[in-house]
């Protein structure tokens, strides 16, 4: 049981680490267009992200996929920026089935990119055969899923407070939070080492 908690906590810390806030930014961008009434939909999207994250780590563990770290470190803030810009474009518009399918597919793809960003570290802390890493990987994924749910709940509570106490409408809240995410992520893109190559 102690092994379970080790990797579960690594998953929790991976999402909730304030120094590695890229994951938090993506979850904020993913969550802000939704309200508490949409909790099932947002939890499904978060699970899609976890699936993508886990798939890419699995592929990395079995040496099927290998991407240079510098590209992943560039693509991760790109995914956050795209999600936030999508919110700005779609703010106030009703979600259609096609749009949700697009968001679900994009969320899985973004999860794959984010998972590749952590796969090298995961492989370094867990030596051994790929098959020996499957159980720790699933424990890690559970930690990620729980942490993501915590972040989503926090965003939904913040949205509820903003919309009931401070009278923000849903559109304005989405615009403000998405603009905040964009304001944080643009410097990350500008300072990315890829530009010095």
Describe what this molecule looks like in 3D:
77% of the residues lie in helices and 0% in strands. It has seven helices and no strands. Helix 3 runs antiparallel to helix 6 (134-164). The chain is globular, with a radius of gyration of 17 Å. The chain starts with a helix and ends in a 7-residue tail after the last helix.
Topology, element by element:
Layout: H1 2-16, H2 22-31, H3 39-61, H4 69-90, H5 97-125, H6 134-164, H7 170-190
Helix pairs in contact: 1-6, 2-4, 2-6, 2-7, 3-5, 3-6, 4-5, 4-7
Tags for this model:
197 residues; mainly alpha; 7 helices
Low-confidence stretches: none
Overall pLDDT, averaged? 88
Give the termini separation: 46 Å
How many beta-strand runs? 0
Question: Portion of residues in helices?
Answer: over 70%
Tell me the structural class.
mainly alpha
Number of helices: 7
Order of helices and strands: HHHHHHH
Query: Main β-sheet, in a few words?
Result: none
Provide a brief overview of the structure.
Helices cover 77% and strands 0% of the residues. By secondary structure, the protein is mostly helical.
């Amino acid at each position: 049981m102690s092994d379970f908690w080790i990797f579960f906590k690594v998953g929790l810390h991976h999402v909730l680490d304030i120094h590695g806030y890229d994951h938090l930014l993506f979850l904020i961008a993913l969550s802000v267009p939704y309200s508490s009434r949409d909790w099932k939909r947002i939890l499904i999207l978060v699970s899609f992200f976890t699936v993508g994250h886990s798939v890419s780590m699995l592929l990395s563990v079995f040496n099927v996929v290998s991407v240079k770290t510098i590209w992943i470190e560039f693509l991760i803030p790109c995914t956050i920026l795209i999600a936030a810009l999508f919110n700005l474009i779609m703010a106030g518009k009703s979600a259609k089935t096609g749009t949700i399918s697009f968001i679900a597919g994009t969320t899985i793809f973004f999860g794959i990119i984010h998972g590749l960003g952590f796969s090298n570290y995961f492989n370094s802390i867990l030596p051994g055969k790929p098959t020996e890493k499957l159980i720790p990987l699933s424990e890690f994924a559970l930690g990620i899923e729980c942490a993501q749910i915590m972040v989503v709940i926090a965003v939904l509570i913040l949205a509820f407070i903003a919309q009931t106490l401070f009278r923000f409408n849903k559109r304005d809240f989405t615009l403000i939070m998405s603009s905040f995410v964009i304001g944080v992520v643009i410097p990350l893109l500008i300072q990315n080492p890829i530009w010095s190559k």
